[in-house]
Amino acid sequence: MSVPKVVIVGRPNxxxxxxxxxxxxxxxxxxxxxxxxxxxxxGHLMFVGDRYFExxxxxxxxxxxSDDLSEDIERQIQTAIDQATVILxxxxxxxxxxxxxxxxxxRLRKVDKPKLIVINKCDSTKTDAEIHxxxxxxxxxxxxxxxRANRGRDDLMKGILxxxxxxxxxxxxxxxxxxxxxxxxMAIVGRRNVGKSTFINALAETERMIVSEIAGTTRDSVDVxxxxxxxxxxxxxxxxVRKRKSLANDIEFYGLVRATKSIRRADxxxxxxxxxxxxxxxxxxxxxxxxxxxxxxxxxxxxxDLGLELGQTTEKWGKYFENSFKSMRHVPVAFITAKDSHNIxxxxxxxxxxxxxxxxxxxxxxxxxxxxxxxxxxxPHIAKxxxxxxxxxxxxxxxxxxxxxxxxxxxxxxPSWERYLLGRFREDLxxxxxxxxxxLRGKTKEDGDDE
Length: 451
Prior knowledge:
The protein is an alpha/beta fold and 451 residues long. The chain has three domains: 5-176, Rossmann fold; 181-357, Rossmann fold (3-Layer(aba) Sandwich), CATH 3.40.50.300; 364-447, 2-Layer Sandwich (GMP Synthetase, Chain A, domain 3). The protein has 13 helices and 15 strands. It has helices at residues 16-24, 70-83, 99-109, 153-163, 171-179, 196-204, 250-265, 281-292, 304-309, 314-324, 344-358, 364-377, 415-428, and strands spanning 5-9, 42-48, 51-57, 86-92, 115-120, 142-144, 184-189, 222-228, 231-237, 268-274, 297-302, 333-335, 390-397, 402-407, 437-442. It has a six-stranded mixed beta sheet with strand order 2-3-1-4-5-6, with helices on both faces. Strand 10 (268-274), helix 8 (281-292) and strand 11 (297-302) form a beta-alpha-beta unit. Helix 12 crosses helix 13 (415-428).
């Protein structure tokens, strides 16, 4: 990669994630007073002046992880340091130099890369006289910051730009490419430990996310860009969700909120299930969120190798989905084994296909031919001694395809007939596997008489 990487490192709870969010201008990384919140590498593409670079947050060095993932977190930190162009060594201006800060300094002393020491949490000038002690950590420039007081933000950015190496050949082009909208944004959602991060790593062909048998490893929603067949995609790995009453702490609550936000900003949602587990209330809750946002979706049954060992079949799962999600029978189903990369390319191709369906626009003529045929085959029943009439239909939007049918009186049409009409539109128009929004609109005075 030609785009420089500015990696934020330091002991736990010195405000590394806050600094990333502060500079990015939005919530990129989960922030919580609990030490060790960040586990994966979390990055954000920056464009400042005429330079592109990626700012990367890392886990706290020296953390003893509550889920025994310390080795995995450490490996992610080391990967970030190895790939870094510039290192921001963050310390806490309130607590001063700690033994763990010295451990971090000793580790970074062996890394021959440009560095800055960022003395964070300097909310006022009261700490200014004490910053000299941080000079002992490394012979590099010291910068004071406070995210809370919005102090030193511009100075920090100027400091970063001053020690970035000259632009490499192709850096600007690659930065512009990374800044462009991808071909497709896919949210990877599901309950905990269904293999979402394993799938992301298979796509990225690197261990970008920590993969563990411990449920709930991912705490941030992390965007991972990858290429396939010359096209650029973004996969959004989301925290695994569990029942609200089971949420252990604020960190998991933020993860739940971010999972739902990821659904809203995705083009297609890949809803993951474990082939060895039954569908849960959490799965149904997530599907409600997907349905409420009218997002194209694929049911992804992961760990299919284990499912086959249990004697499962694609037909059984198809029927299971139909019975569990009766209003989502249009959703296609994919069977994969992420750890072996089995059927992953086919899944991405399917995601592209349904995204294309969601953006289709049909002519008013075609739409009204389907409408008239539907009425001919199954006319709506007379209600309130009046005959329901449909005058014309038009598609008013895409993503999702949205169809408005002008009628004489909305109240004359039963919900069952509306479902029938929606089914006919799905069957006869190029929207077979995506949600459709259908609205009946009554005539107004401006439209003239019913007849």
